[in-house]
Amino acid sequence: MTIKQASDWASEYLRKNVTTSNISYLIQYGRIKKIGINGTTQVSRQELITYYKSYNGHRELSWRDQLGGDLNWALSFDQYKEAETTKHVHRLHPYKGKFIPQLVEYFLDSHTDNFKKETCFKKGDIVLDPFSGSGTTMVQSCELGMHAIGIDVSAFNSLIGNCKVTKYNLVDVQTEINRITKALKEFLFNSHTLDFEEKLLQALYEFNNKHFPGPDYKYRLKRGEINEDKYGAEKEKEFLPTFNKLIKDYKIKLRQDKTDTFLDKWYLQHIRDEIQFVFDEIKKVRNTDTKKIISIILSRTIRSCRATTHADLATLLEPITATYYCAKHGKICKPLFSILKWWETYTKDTIKRLFQFDRLRTQTFQVCLTGDSRTIDILKELEKKSPTFAELARKQKIKGIFSSPPYVGLIDYHEQHAYAYDLFGFKRKDELEIGPLYKGQGRESKQSYIQGITDVLNNCKKFLVDDYDIFLVANDKYNMYPTIAENAGMQIVNQYKRPVLNRTEKDKGAYSEIIFHLKQK
């Protein structure tokens, strides 16, 4: 069938509208084979049937039913594995609410297709992200040969973004990591923490093998032969005397003396001591760039070492100071008593990712500024960081924006990295966040959000070329962006509705967001 015939056939077969663009997407992304006959593109009916019956095909149809026929499945990027959506430096540090790099690439690069009819950016252009977050737009701009300016109200977010795009002396980074790791191991040798953990792990191994035997236990759970809550609680209580004896034998101190800060409350005493030890060692590093990237490694490490259950890592209910039944793993688990394992894992991973990005980066400028995008003088602040880049931006102006503004009432952006603010002593500016979780999603919050995003656009457009292009990624369930565009003297010239498949939240239901393309009115 031709693409038009396939569109008509699929619409009848599925009893819903299937456009020629939908069929073109299936060809372009290798879902079905392209057959060229007499210069025309044709497809196989049987391949279409096979696709629509497959998992991805079924999910696409199901999500279209729930989210609307205007869902652009080409922007789902479902062909990419997680390792590709978190490639190289994009996974240097956890961050809630970031978009995947492929989405940035799609709109910034030079390709066109059935959905993206024109290119808006080219090599050498300057791209602005006024809600820089973890720096995804800056990283992809660097990869694509474009300059980029990020702005974020959070000092820690700016640190993450700048660390991702910095060009390092990797030999120096590795040398300092080796020095600090050696010092940490000597510190641990004197504290007996590793001996304690070894004994605890052995006791847990024997206990879990006896009471939670591999596949058999999970099989019986699924068949309803075991009451998980009751059985888990019994075995948790049964193992506790063994744990308490080891704590006493090795003189392990669990809680800290105070709970005033995040670091005081959410870290066991031995973990807290190790964090401070490594932080003091990092202060001895002479090279500023090396010091910053190793600080990010420490931050990533301590995030993984919070005293919480495996099931509560994202929510943090109550600090855990003893062994517990873990529903996620179906056995008795323990809190962490040392950062060494995660420190060694993340140092190796970081070096590998920096090396990978080194081979892809271009000779371009990328800088993230710390400030309020509603009021910041971009050129003035850029001058302080990079006079050469500031001069280029002054002459050339910024071509446009690619950014994902915060969603109203969804995330407290400072609070998600509370441990880092405590450790590094950054000043928190929660009150300057636009649409934070703690302000909710009421009428007043929505009005404040509209005003905040409008103010950002009005401030930033002063630094843009006249024929600018702005792309904003938003889940606009309250339909605020038409008002925002109007208030900023802009018009929405196009919008792309995409399914969001790669979410980390427990809710894996149908979910979409819109990429709004704005231009001067």
Give structural notes.
Helix content is 48%, strand content 12%. Strands 7-4-3-8-9-11-10 form a seven-stranded mixed β-sheet, sandwiched between helices. The chain has a two-stranded antiparallel ribbon with strand order 1-2. Strands 5-6 form a two-stranded antiparallel sheet. The protein is globular, with a radius of gyration of 26 Å.
Gist of the model:
This protein is an alpha/beta fold and 521 residues long. It contains 21 helices and eleven strands. A seven-stranded mixed sheet has the order 7-4-3-8-9-11-10, with helices on both faces. It has a two-stranded antiparallel ribbon with strand order 1-2. It has a two-stranded antiparallel ribbon with strand order 5-6.
